[in-house]
Specification:
alpha/beta; 8-stranded mixed β-sheet; 4-stranded mixed β-sheet; 13 helices
Length: 336
């Protein structure tokens, strides 16, 4: 089994390490920075387990990375997906399975446009790991696993075979969803991150600075939960209009086993894998300001939330909370 991983971010590192630790898998890295990578990769999890493996190819050449690959796994932000698909397209074989670790930033929509209509595609509903790089190109921490995973598979009649393959690769129960909508649309990062950012920074104006950097999850607030729940209600209405089967994407309250804003706040604050993650801020002359170059902004507003926002308006739905948060985030990005 030859797997090419596209992208050297947090998830790219952890996926490379976990999969390379298996002797029956050959891993290739397709990255813009091959000179910064070692052939040895190491990943550590919170339980003391260590994954060690060797990368068989580290290259910026798409021909070397893609030719002969059985699976191509894209671990890239939304703004890179179209360009990456265009790079790899000439070297894909007809049976090469092309997938994404993050589906909510437009992968399926771009793949339908740019790849052959017979190219097998898959995408995760939620990322399989919570990941952090410790030394770029060498090591990373796997901060948390998921008890189960779900994927959508399109453009093939071998959906069950691909589901079983992903289950085998990630050693975790994997469910097969009915439609790419069920992974392309999510109330995870596009709502979870953006509601929190709005609650923290909606009063921000140029020249203003904050005294400290709160923890993104450990200092989660009730008003963040209230906004998240309201946005999720609008999101669930969109899913109904699109014909997504009921419960395919659980409500925020159901997913976090909560009943209201107070219990949701306590739950998010208590999740061990979320501990120690700082809010996206950077130091200024007078204190700290939002880091608008962070993927929390550059990924979750113009890609993740944009898809939900645009589809809601296409279906002529009333979504004041999604509108408010999306328009604020895009306004902040344009000012930068």
């Amino acid at each position: 089994m030859v797997i090419t991983i596209c992208g050297g971010g947090h998830l790219g590192h952890v996926c490379a390490g976990v999969l390379a630790s298996r002797e029956d898998i050959t891993i290739r890295m397709f990255t813009r920075k091959p000179h910064l990578w070692s052939t040895d990769i190491e990943v550590n999890d919170p339980n003391g387990k260590q994954y060690k493996g060797k990368l068989n190819e580290i290259t910026a050449d798409p021909a070397k990375a893609i030719c002969g690959a059985d699976v191509v796994l894209i671990c890239l932000p939304g703004y890179s997906i179209a360009e990456e698909l265009q790079k790899i397209r000439p070297y894909l074989e007809k049976n090469t399975i092309v997938g994404t670790i993050v589906s909510s930033t437009g992968f399926f929509f771009r793949a339908f446009e740019l790849l052959p209509s017979t190219q097998p595609l898959f995408g995760f509903q939620r990322v399989p790991f919570i990941s952090r790089i410790t030394e770029y190109g060498h090591s990373a921490d796997l901060l948390g696993y998921k008890a189960s995973l779900a994927i959508a598979v399109e453009q093939t009649n071998k959906k069950e075979e691909i589901r079983a393959l992903i289950e085998s690769l990630f050693k975790c129960p994997v469910g097969l969803l009915e439609s790419h909508y069920e992974v392309s649309l999510t109330n995870s990062n596009p709502l979870l991150h953006t509601s929190r950012l709005y609650s923290m920074f909606n009063d921000y104006k140029e020249g203003y600075a904050y005294e400290n950097v709160p923890q993104f999850y450990s200092d989660w607030t009730v008003d963040s939960s209230e906004l998240l729940i309201a946005m999720d209600g609008e999101f669930q209405h969109l899913l109904d209009k699109l014909g997504v089967r009921e419960g395919a994407i659980p409500t925020i309250l159901n997913y976090y086993e909560s009943k209201d804003a107070d219990s949701l706040t306590k739950k998010i604050r208590s999740i061990k894998a979320f501990q120690g993650i700082a809010s996206p801020m950077k130091e200024s002359d007078c204190g700290y300001v939002p880091d608008f170059d962070s993927r929390y902004f550059t990924e979750d507003f113009p890609f993740g939330l944009k898809i939900i926002h645009d589809l809601s308006h296409e279906k002529e739905l009333f979504c004041p909370n999604i509108d408010k948060v999306y328009e604020w985030g895009m306004r902040m990005l344009k000012k930068q």
